[in-house]
Specification:
This protein is an alpha/beta fold. Helices cover about 40% and strands about 15% of the residues. The strands form five sheets. A six-stranded antiparallel sheet has the order 15-16-17-18-4-19, with helices on one face. Strand 11 and strand 12 form a beta hairpin.
Length: about 650
């Protein structure tokens, strides 16, 4: 937006406005605002009209504001000031366009995406880039787009200023002030209308507020509010001495836990995963299992520590809390612990969170670095490394003539986007994509289907690796004696609800995971059939080996061998910060919540807003009032969620 001061007098200021440039900016921003509005799910026509009207008024207020400033810029500075405004405006438009495509795919805005990827340190940023297969040169090119667009912006202002000069438009500053005041008043009126028309806001503030817009108004949520606090327990003051050894199992079984990246529960079928489908027939009858988070850091944390995702931030930041209670218990029972992984287990420092400050709880770690040496992770063949992981497990399994009693943690990564496959691999879905096109994926249903086929082929490949281990155990006669678990760290979505991948929502596609547990150490017992979550895995394993009370009071998770009803929790990942949204799941119903305030540390959060209650398949629950919803939360969810959070 460039405006040239033409005349100035003692009584008033007048300026010649480049109205063609102002109109062009208004058209572009209006189009981008309309594109954002079409992406908001669940909004009524009245809501969309109000949000869009506030957006347009915000743009007009911005234009008037800059014109008024121009009227007060010294004449000798007008040229430099105009070029600076044009450059900043061009950068803003390009960032808004990039943000639009990012939000279209992941329902996350640019600032939050960068915060999630960075995660507090450069190493996490590098690992995040590696996991999404975006190289540093490509990312640098994307980051440089706003700067590359500046010359185009400067050229456009030259063209529009010449067009505006053909029929000059001179405006008095006091008229601009009047217009600014009128727009601000109308926007305040619309804000009040929005609060009265919208009964409740079912989307987060991040979704309803334009990410880089001028408006600072936010609609206050009108749904039920609940008091919130994380339940205190002894882990917050972990003893410096190891857990007391009150049990010792003389006849220990080997424990093998397979952790599959981005594994969806509904993908475990005879066609996609024949080995896991066969194994499931011998496992505990868990109807629904969810990950405690929709991203790796939360999924791993809850899985390896037996704790809810609400403890992720405080535990990660306080090294006195490092060292998983389940692994302490296994070590006291005499179990050596080995980890094999095709990516770095130091992601978000989770290796130390789980295995202790000096990794004292684990006997051996072989992760990505040990398999590729000094090579750049971007050059790694993940599918080949997953084969190497399996080979390493097979080499470690045979122990002829020696007692059993070891714990193996096996992490597979081929199922993380872009879904790695050996070049010669023949999966069950031959029509799969061999490349990514992020910009068109949200609008191209065929490409999404072919990318999902690629994912299913990658899962089929990982299933074959687990099948190699199972076959080896059967050949050696140790299969029936071995406790085997298979879980996913989180799910994966392919636009089923308008999102892609994971890390953007806590819906069923991103959090429902396989939860297979074959235990030779327990006879038939009552198992809660409705719901389990990842933090329940190791408490169940410890119960199977007769040492559940070793971790009693140290874990939020519960053994599935216990008959008490369970409530599962899954949180929306927020980078290295505490989660800002979560859901509770009882196997039949899900209640979605978001924090107020969202960015405060978890221990200082005292209130949550209820967003909605739905059936497990995400279909709407017919309720007439927020009072009914509040009653349902207090009667169905709150009593059984007290093991990890209190909702009052």
């Amino acid at each position: 937006m460039a405006a040239v001061v033409n005349t100035r007098s003692s009584s008033s200021r007048e300026l010649q406005v480049d109205y063609w440039l102002c109109c062009w900016f208004l058209v572009i921003t209006s189009w981008l605002g309309f594109e954002y509005i079409t992406l908001i799910q669940g909004a009524s026509a009245a809501e969309e009209f109000l949000i869009y009207s506030k957006w347009i008024l915000g743009v007009i207020v911005g234009i008037l504001f800059f014109l008024i400033i121009n009227a007060h810029v010294p004449l000798w500075l007008v040229g430099i000031w105009s070029k600076l405004i044009v450059a900043l405006t061009t950068v803003f438009l390009v960032l808004l366009w990039i943000d639009l495509h990012l939000y279209e795919l992941l329902r996350v805005h640019l600032g939050r995406a960068l915060r999630v990827m960075y995660g507090g340190d450069y190493q996490v940023f590098r690992q995040s880039l590696f996991s999404i297969n975006v190289s540093l040169p490509v990312l640098s090119l994307i980051a440089g787009l706003p700067l590359l667009a500046i010359p185009a912006g400067l050229l456009s202002v030259r063209l529009t200023s010449r067009l505006s000069a053909l029929e000059p438009l001179v405006v008095r500053v006091r008229h601009l002030f009047a217009g600014l005041l009128v727009c601000a008043c109308v926007q305040l009126f619309l804000q009040g209308a929005s609060a009265s028309i919208v009964r409740r806001e079912i989307r987060s503030v991040e979704e309803t507020t334009m990410p880089l817009g001028f408006s600072v108004f936010k609609t206050a949520p009108g749904a039920a509010a609940f008091g919130f606090r994380v339940t205190p327990r002894s882990e917050e003051r972990l003893p410096s001495t190891p857990l007391l050894n009150r049990h010792f199992v003389d006849k220990k079984a080997d424990i093998i836990v397979f952790i599959i990246e981005s594994a969806r529960a509904d993908a475990i079928t005879a066609e996609v995963t024949p080995n896991l489908d066969l194994l499931r027939k011998q496992c505990l009858p868990v109807r629904t299992a969810i990950s405690c988070g929709n991203a790796t850091q939360l999924g791993w944390f809850s899985l390896l520590t037996g704790n809810s995702p609400f403890r992720f931030g405080p535990t990660r930041e306080n090294d006195r809390l490092w060292g998983s209670a389940p692994f302490k218990a296994l070590k006291r029972l005499g179990y050596p612990i080995y980890a094999f992984a095709s990516f770095g287990l130091d992601f978000y420092r989770l290796d130390r969170v789980a295995f202790g400050k000096n990794l004292e709880l684990i006997d051996s770690i072989r992760d990505l670095k040990s398999f590729i040496g000094e090579r750049d992770p971007f050059e790694a063949d993940i599918a080949k490394i997953d084969v190497n992981v399996t080979d390493a497990v097979l080499d470690a399994l045979p122990r002829p003539g020696k007692a059993l009693g070891r714990c193996f943690l096996v992490f597979y990564n081929s199922t993380h986007q872009p879904y790695h496959l050996p070049s010669e691999w023949k999966g069950p879905f031959p029509d799969f994509s061999d490349r990514w096109d992020y910009l068109s994926m949200a609008k191209d249903a065929v490409q999404v289907r072919r990318m999902k086929n690629r994912y299913l082929n990658a899962l089929h490949f990982v299933d074959s690796q687990i099948g190699r281990v199972i076959e080896s155990l059967k050949v050696s006669g140790e299969f029936e004696k071995t406790l085997i678990a298979v879980v996913g760290d989180h799910g994966e979505e392919f636009m089923e609800s308008g999102r892609i991948f994971h890390n953007s929502e806590v819906n069923r596609y991103q959090i429902e995971v396989p939860f297979l547990l074959k235990s030779p150490l327990r006879g038939p017992r009552t198992v809660h059939p409705n719901v389990a979550c990842s933090m329940d895995l190791f408490p169940t394993i410890l119960d199977a080996v007769g040492a559940h009370d070793l971790i009693e009071g140290y874990c939020d998770g519960r053994s599935l061998f216990r008959t008490e009803p369970l409530i599962a929790v899954s949180a929306l990942a927020n980078g290295d910060r505490d989660p800002n949204r979560f859901c509770l799941h009882n196997g039949g119903l899900k209640a979605y919540f978001r924090f107020a305030p969202a960015d405060a540390p978890i221990w200082s959060r005292s209130k949550v807003w209820l967003e909605k209650i739905v059936h497990a398949d995400e279909t709407a629950l017919a309720l007439d009032s927020s009072k009914e919803e509040a009653t349902l939360v207090r009667e169905v969810f709150a009593p059984f969620a007290r093991r990890f959070v209190v909702i009052e």
